[in-house]
């Protein structure tokens, strides 16, 4: 407790000293690490901090708005949101290979983000929410990595910052969360589940379209709502809906339907290297299934993923 408080005081003083009257720019993803880094730097230098939030339109329902609300209402900073779902989806058109999709989303993110920085904020300091385990991970090479992750983005050669600020670089995740709580970040954000960089882009299996993203967002929001209502969300390490892109036959009233299948994924794990499928009570699964089918148009069937990791990964792509 006191340790985190003194960490905040010391780090705030250091940032002020290092930055002087210059600007700092930070890429905000809405994840725990970049959010805590943003809150901390905001406390140190207020409006000298600019946070750039690239909203790919691949986040969960209303999440982009929640991030914007949080950082514009609760913290003093320049907050820049770039809405670019259309751009991302046009790049993803016709693409169904998972690694290719990841690569496209990563490259597109890189381009959108750095073009914005280049045109408006390409001087002063650059900040990122690197934490201690990230530095260990990146030293390990790619052997442990099954999928391409692109969270840490390197600075392009033509942009020169005075220095890179990584105020959380010596902290573990639980310490980062403690700092976030102390700084007044919303509980939901501090305790946010892991969310893949490519977002719903890898939870819509196969080609990603605006309509599929919308269906998945609706289904996922219902799942989260039901899990929160029964308190079961706290028992899970991670849970979400997946849209496999499969249509199946069903019956509604007197007519035949041929609509989308939604899959529910929920796991418990300590480290995400291995994971167990979660034994969610049938009543909860039943409620989720009923609500999804009744409330989300174009969905007529829900299945539950009972695969542990290994052999399955947590995400489907
Ligand atoms: P897998 O699917 O590899 O996922 O078992 C393990 C954990 O990593 C998350 N994940 C990602 N996180 N960028 C991230 O930051 C990514 O590209 C990415 N892909 C998967 C996944 O949600 C799970 O928590």
TrEMBL record:
One GO cellular component term: cytosol
Record keywords, A-Z: ATP-binding, Glutamine amidotransferase, GMP biosynthesis, Ligase, Nucleotide-binding, Purine biosynthesis
Residue ranges of domain GMPS ATP-PPase in the record: 2-192
Enzyme Commission designation: 6.3.5.2
Pathway: Purine metabolism; GMP biosynthesis; GMP from XMP (L-Gln route): step 1/1
Residue sites binding ATP per the record: 29-35
Top enzyme class: ligase
Record-level Gene Ontology MF annotations: ATP binding; GMP synthase activity
Catalytic activity as recorded in UniProt: XMP + L-glutamine + ATP + H2O = GMP + L-glutamate + AMP + diphosphate + 2 H(+)
UniProt subunit comment: Homodimer.
Role description: Catalyzes the synthesis of GMP from XMP.
This protein's name: GMP synthase [glutamine-hydrolyzing]
Organism the protein comes from: Ruminococcus difficilis
Gene name of the record: guaA
Whole sequence portion shown: 198 to 514 of 514
